[in-house]
Amino acid sequence: VQLVESGGGSVQPGGSLRLSCAASGFTSNNVRMAWFRQVSGKERQGVAAIGRAGTMNYEDSVKGRFTISKDNAKNTLYLQMNSLKPEDTAMYYCAADVTVAIAASLSESVYDYWGQGTQVTVSS
Predict the structure, then answer these.
(1) What are 25-49's pLDDT values in tens digits?
(2) Is residue 15 within 8 Å of 65, Cβ to Cβ?
């Protein structure tokens, strides 16, 4: 199983970015996946998750600004981030749980596979 993130970068406040996570070794339409972020020195935080049945779950601070989606044909997970704020600055990771669990969980402990991360910096 491999997860490879891309799409990070530097943007000004109010800008947008779309992160991608290319998955291999499993079929993305049969797993639950999520995006997490981590600031140096702090714990990793769940940002958005999509469950096996397609349900979505968002951390409160990103609701209405971020959208998680999957393209099962491309085996790719996305995170569209709009109206970015300086506090969104972090390393962003995608994660996958290939068990039979269904819920769109934001808990780090349920995910078995992780990508290497992509840096997002929001600054003027």
Answers:
(1) 887 778 899 999 999 999 999 999 9
(2) no
